[in-house]
Amino acid sequence: MLQLTEQCVILELKAITKEGILLELASAVHEKYPQISVKTMTTILSEREQIGSTGVGDGVAIPHGKIPGLDRLLLCFGRSSTGVGFDAVDTRPVHLLVMILSPVHLASDYLQTLAKVSRLLKNSDIRNKLLQADKAQAIVEIFNQQIGS
Where would I find the H helices in 5-135? Predict the structure, then answer.
């Protein structure tokens, strides 16, 4: 079962650039999963961003990529109260980011997860709850109730 964990929730991102955000999210994953190199993650995520921004609008970005050697899907959540320029489709700053990392061999699960996260973040009530949550556990509960199945 796919789950978001408190160790992969950043309540206030410090970075103010897209590259900095990707590095901060990758570093959070690396702390929990040290076998996954920060450089590998940021390279793959940056290459994906060059294809097209993962800023989907409404203050949301879903950076994602397939990581060689990874054995299961991972999620990492980050929030920026000030917002970050992410080349989003609506040109507005991004406040909520959910990074999805997938093993190379789980293409179907990867696409299903991307769709679930996207649907979740299209809901303005959920976005508001995520913006207002003051504890990582609250964010984890929102995600795991909605996409943990």
Answer: 18-32, 38-51, 107-122, 124-132
Closest by CA position to 3, among listed 141, 145, 144, 138: 144
- Residues 55-93: b if buried by 16+ CB within 10 A, e if exposed: bbebbbbbbbbbbeebeebbbbbbbbeeebebebeeeee
* Contact call for residues 118 and 62 (beta carbons, < 8 A): yes
- Integer Cα distance of 48 and 42 in angstroms: 10
pLDDT in tens, 96-107: 999 999 999 988
Domains of the chain (ranges plus CATH)? Answer: 6-147 (3.40.930.10)
Looking at the annotation, which residues are catalytic?
64
